[in-house]
Amino acid sequence: LAPLHLPPALALLEAAREQLPAVPHVLCPDTAFHAELPEEAATYALPREWRERHGLRRYGFHGLSYAWAADRTAELLGRPLAELELLMAHLGGGCSACALSGGRSVDTSMGFTPLEGMPMSKRSGSVDPGMLTWLLAEGRLTLDELREGLERRSGLLGLSGSSGDTRDLVAAERDGDRDAGLALRVFAHGVAREIAAAATSLPRVDALVFTGEIGWDQPEVREAVCRRLGPLGIEPPALGNRRDDGPVSAEGAAVPVLVVQVREELQLARECLRMLGEEDP
Q1: Which regions of the chain are under pLDDT 70?
Q2: Which of 30, 68, 102, 245 makes an SS bond possible with 63, Cβ 3.0 to 4.6 Å?
Q3: How open is the CA angle 41-202-227, to the nearest 5 degrees?
Q4: Strand, coil or helix: 259
Q5: Which class in CATH covers the domain with range 6-45+58-118+186-275?
């Protein structure tokens, strides 16, 4: 079980069952969407005894977001999801990339915990593990200091020294804040790199989809990311923000770029209805 999310969720489920024993309970973890990751994408290159004893594998997260965005993308493109090869990026407080083949997750940037992958609002994303062991050695940092720093004082906040919110950083960069500019460049580089890495798990790219609060509502970030993805046939978006889901790329683009508003609460409801055998409205 993914250690940060599922044990607390199961404890909550047990408490809810005690209080409401006569009604059904449905647990919809983000990790479920990635449960069938190919073995080569889910396995860490670690000693087998570690992997087997501790359940070390890549779980992936943001599954509810990706499930909703994938269905919406198929609807917007007018094509069955089963026929689509999609690159997706959920950019918000937490950030990840995902490759979907026929609606199935075949690669994703988050792993055993949501700390792996691209830089985030306050999380570091992937860093050299040798650097972490060096920091822990000989008392340079305590374990608690390291954990708190990686999870709450890194990412955009750590880079800028002022904010983990891209809206603040875009405005600050326009006012000449060099640290804000660096934070946005590092972020765009990290997001693009993870998207490009996910593309290696697909036979082709039918569309790039941005979701999450930043992905939906920050055109400057989308443009900066797409400018780095030219080798994949992706061009910078022609449009800024829009009021509904849909393409932001130029008409006839080789690889359409779309935005889909994050609606995890609706996907949660859909999955509960499906599990209970109810009709999905």
Answers
A1: 280-281
A2: 30
A3: 105
A4: strand
A5: alpha beta
Question: What is the set of active-site residues?
Answer: 30
Number of other residues whose CB lies within 10 A of the CB of residue 86: 25
Q: Output the pLDDT for position 156.
A: 98
Adjacent-strand bridge partners of 95: 91
CA distance 232 to 59: 26
Instruction: Read off the amino acid at residue 134.
Output: W
Query: How far is residue 254 from each of residues 69, 205, 207, 210, measured CA to CA in Å?
Result: 20, 9, 9, 17
Distances (CA, A) of 159 to 71, 76, 82, 181, 192: 35, 36, 40, 9, 18
Residue 261 · residue 216 · CB < 8 Å: yes
Angle between helices 264-275 and 63-77 (to 10 degrees): 90
Do the beta carbons of residue 226 and residue 209 sit within 8 Å? no
Structure-token match 């198929």, residue found: 74
pLDDT, tens digit, 9 for 90 and up, residues 209-219: 999 999 999 99
Residue 209 sits at φ, ψ, to 5 deg, of -120, 125
Domain boundaries defined on the chain: 6-45+58-118+186-275
* Bridge-based pairing state of the strands 207-211 and 104-108: unpaired
- Amino acid (one-letter) located at 182: L
* Per-residue model confidence (pLDDT) at position 280: 63
Residue 278 — φ and ψ, nearest 5°?
A: -90, 160
Report whether 211 contacts 95 (CB < 8 A): no
